[in-house]
Fold this protein.
Amino acid sequence: TLHILGYRRQALKLYLEAETTVRQQPAYRLAACLGNGCVLFAFREESSLIARLADELLPLAQENGFNLWARVARFFGGLAASDLDDNLAGSHMMALTENDLEDQEVDKSCYLGLLAKAFMNSGQFDIAAETVEKGLHEAEKIGEHYFTAALLRIRGEIELANGAGDRAAEASFREAIAFARRQNARSWELQATTSLAKLLRSQGRFEEARAELREINDWFIAADVA
């Protein structure tokens, strides 16, 4: 939550303190911490750290019969492989694991968004577009919107990649920014604004791009100082 709100340094500090603590506690607490760490580092886009946590989590979960955390380890291990190895095997593992989560609604919109991004990065644009829409539907269905702004930004990136056009992508980025602002979700606002600014610069709209970025960049500078 701290990361989403923009307090990224504090979020990392809190996670590292938690990981140190649970290493002195029962196996289930360690598994839960490692699993949630995978989520945090996915938000931070730090795939090497995701791989480290997933590699430790999977055997721990399997040895203790923690089926949920084993699925989490496989999903995020696939995410790390998709990013680090740049092949289809990682997204395939993510998709297989996501299918195992059919009865689990909580967090599913987030998993679908990360899967859509992996599909996009591996050039599977059609299924990426289908997956991000499925994620948005899941979020709306249960009212879980902590990842919705990120989903909208990912949709915009997919629209650029699959040839849907600049206009559709710009609309998605602006929708993501508006949604993030309503939640004070500064990290998602920064990502969406950065995507929008990149698009605007590609169209020669340099001053507009600078104006879009100015406010959110100023907030992060002030938050980091604080």
User: Anything to note?
Assistant: Residues 206-225 form the longest helix (20 residues).
